[in-house]
Design brief:
disordered N terminus; mainly alpha
Length: 113
């Protein structure tokens, strides 16, 4: 055995091993309730779960957890961009409404005849 695996003999730190998590463990780690997890799952936003449902063997791998975190970061950035685009669109629409009420707007000028 290597000294790293023995750990306490040399005082060297034992490397932490990431393990698969149950849904409950994942919820605790992420500060979410099981209800929220299942809502995310229904929307297709939950992390990938492997194992058979019903036998307590459903697990979330560390890789699936990391992928979920990355996906949520990208999703948050997209939401921010969509809100900004919507805000700009509303501002442009309001500017158009104000401009059309101006006496200088071409639709408000009297026609020469």
């Amino acid at each position: 055995m290597s000294t790293i695996e023995q750990g306490s003999d040399t005082g060297a730190p034992v490397p932490s091993v990431e393990r698969d998590m149950t849904i409950e463990q994942w919820c605790l780690k992420r500060g979410r309730s099981k209800t929220t997890f299942y809502k995310l799952k229904k929307k297709g936003l939950a992390p990938e779960v492997c194992g058979r449902p019903g036998d307590g063997g459903q697990r979330i791998t560390p890789k699936a957890d990391r992928e979920w975190e990355e996906r949520m970061l990208r999703w948050g950035e997209q939401q921010k961009a969509w809100r900004e685009a919507e805000r700009r669109s509303k501002m442009a629409a309001e500017a158009g409404r104000r401009a059309s009420k101006s006496p200088l707007h071409h639709s408000n000028r009297k026609r020469r005849g």
